[in-house]
Structures are given as structure tokens and as C-alpha cells.
Amino acid sequence: MNARRFWIPFVIFFGLTPVMLFLGLTSAGAGHGDYFLAKILFPYTLASTAVSDGIEQPFMWLAGIQYPVYGVVMGLANVRRKLTLAGGILAVVHVLAVVGAFAFANRYFSGAR
Length: 113
Fold this sequence. Notes:
With 113 residues, this protein is mainly α. The protein has helices spanning 2-28, 36-41, 43-47, 57-79, 83-104. It has one domain. Helix 1 (2-28) packs antiparallel against helix 4 and helix 4 packs antiparallel against helix 5.
């Protein structure tokens, strides 16, 4: 039973990964988009542009593993029956990262040129 409690959130977040990557890449528009949705979906990666002129390869990988990591966190929380608490904390951390991405992202990634 514990294994099932772990795998359900993990599989959901893992399954969301390609959808979120597609939406983020679409928002970026092959470099010609406004990055608005990408900042919301992948705030850690876009916030990294504050210290570089672009999205460096390690941060591209971070975008690819962000949602599976969320799935691991939520799966472990579900096993411990703390899903609501963990979901709330994860949401707050993600929103704070989004605020940081909008506040500090490189000007090129802000939509304003």
C-alpha cells in the first residue's frame, strides 16, 4: 500500500513533465516569445538568467527534472499522509520562485526589449 501511495503522485507529476515542457517551449517561441508561461512553469530555470545571458545547459536539465522532483516530494509526503501540507509548502516555494523569476530574470527573458 505504501508503494502505491508513493507512485500515484510521482506518476502524475512525471506525466505532466512533457506537457509542461511543451507549454514552456511554446511560450519561449524559439527565442522570440515572451517567456511569460515559461517563467510560471519553470521559475528556477528562468531565474537563472539573472546571472547569465541565457539558459545554460544545467538549468535546461533542471527544467526537465523539476516536475519529477515535485512528484518525489509529493509521493513521499503521501506515504507519510502529509500530502496537503507538502502540497501547500511546495506551492508557496514555487510561487516565490515565480516572483523571483519575474523580478530578476535577464531583460532578454522579460518580454520587454
